[in-house]
Structures are given as structure tokens and as C-alpha cells.
């Protein structure tokens, strides 16, 4: 069964850090494009960062310099390191996988598998 499971969310103070994990089962993350999305209450889902099959990454301007996506092939997991968190980063964070080589842009429907999400709350 092909599955993505996110973890690592929680409550953190502004300026703090979290590392989200996206663990895959049933397929090899190294053969897929993996993206992180997020959806804040009352807002549309937005793309955050993407890692291509070749390992190149893209990051949205709103989090550039603060968030870093990475992949651990040995553990079949993709991570999102989030530093200098702000209240506006509060959202449910999802990972998604597409069987492709290059990042296709942050269009949810272009992906083939999706996780259930993990809540990140940034508040003092």
C-alpha cells in the first residue's frame, strides 16, 4: 500500500524551529518528486517547497531562507526543517508525491499521493 505519513508538527513559540518528516511506504521517495504544502484556517492551500528526483529544490519566497527541504533515501523520508517560525506559518502541513523527475509546480492535483497532514501552530 502506497502511503505518506507526516509527523513532527506541534506548538512552538515565534522564532522557534520544527522539523517535519514525511515517511513513505510502498514506494521509494528517491524516484519521486516530493512537495510540502500547507493550509491555514480560512485560506487556500499553498505550496511551500519541493525536491526533485535529482535532488534540486525550490522554495516559496514566503519561507525562503527559513525553511529547508531535504531527503533521506536510506530512511525513505523527506524532511522540512523550519526555522525562525512566525505566527503566519501556522497551518496544517502536507506532503505529496508525484512520479516525475522535475518539480511540476505547486498544483495539488498534479500529485499522485498525499499525506494526512500535521498541524503546526506558532504562538506565544
Please describe the structure with a list of short key phrases separated by commas or semicolons:
124 residues, mainly beta, seven-stranded mixed sheet
Give an overview of the whole structure.
With 124 residues, the protein is mainly beta. It is 0% helix and 48% strand. It contains no helices and 11 strands. The chain has strands at residues 3-7, 10-12, 18-25, 33-39, 46-51, 57-59, 67-72, 77-82, 91-98, 113-114, 118-122. The strands form 2 sheets. Strands 2, 4, 5, 6, 9, 10 and 11 form a 7-stranded mixed β-sheet that branches. It starts with a strand and ends with a strand. 32% of the residues are buried. The model has no long low-confidence stretch (mean pLDDT 96).
The radius of gyration computed from the alpha-carbon positions, rounded to a whole number of angstroms, is 13 Å
| Structure summary, number of beta strands | 11
Which sequence of SSEs, written as H and E, runs from N to C? EEEEEEEEEEE
Tally of alpha and pi helices: 0
| % residues in beta strands | over 45%
Low-confidence segments, given as residue ranges, are: none
Q: Specify the overall morphology.
A: globular
Structural category: mainly beta
Alpha-carbon distance between the two ends: 40 Å
